[in-house]
Amino acid sequence: MAKxxxxxxxxxxxxxxxxxxHHLHSFVASLGRMLRRPWATLLTVGVMAVALSxxxxxxxxxxxxxxxxxxVERAREASLFLKPEIPVERARALAAxxxxxxxxxxxxxxxxxxxxxxxxxxxxxxxxxxxxxxGGNPLPSVLIVRPRGDERALLATLRAVPEADFxxxxxxxxxxxxxxxxxxxxxxxxxxxxxxLGALLVVGNTVRxxxxxRRDEIAVLQSLGATDGFIRRPFLYLGAAYxxxxxxxxxxxxxxxxxxxxxxLRALADxxxxxxxxxxxxxxxxxxxxxxxxxxGWLGAGVVTGHFLRQTRI
Length: 314
Known about the structure:
Largest sheet: 4 strands, antiparallel
Structural class: alpha+beta
Number of strands: 4
Mean pLDDT: 77
Order of helices and strands: HHHEHEHHEHEHHHH
Radius of gyration: 33 Å
Number of domains: 2
Strand content: 5-15%
Oligomer: single chain
Shape: elongated
């Protein structure tokens, strides 16, 4: 008697494998839908890229303006001019005393001879020659103090030093620059919020149109018992794909603008004897931009899809 052939039984796939396969299929299908509508995709991605690049570009400009304004630490330096009769040895002793304070980061002593040499090196030879012609060196010793932390309390202490003639601290322009930069930073956040909302609406409208074109397919899936997460997943990947491509295009636009402005800005800096160079987006910032753009697209698609599913739930 012949033995019956053993029937091959297919091993059922695990739920985790099926979940992973559906995620992969949703991602690939989303890219395919974008590629099948190149012009519509280009318009959506282009609008999002411009909306993302504007606050990013303004943030880069503010960052470079802060660097162009000079180092903040140098701007915070205070020059303590001692009385002319104070000898250099006393100036050095006073500097050693100031270095022991917790609110003082550094103290540099500039003797009268060093001050005269600095005057000659700065191109003011006429004044240096006039000082030399008078006989002797009437320039006082100067202590250049770099504060640590808030310098206002330190300035009051320096003015109270008995050997002090006067204290020079040109902090007005720095305070104004800091306020302008603070205002600019707040403006960047407001602009980013507004344009980010615009980008979210663009993605939402694009996904809404895609949902409308697949209304019958969604109705069939709902009648078969598909969960909202199963139906929503392809649209979420579609929105994230729009965001990622828009973020990459925004970075490309910023890089192009940087390359176009680098040469004339370098020539302008060289004319002032400065080594300033415009810095663009570093790799870590680029990854953050891509992640934020993808999350923005994902969020826009999720809001629109969730609203549609609530309205059409069987």
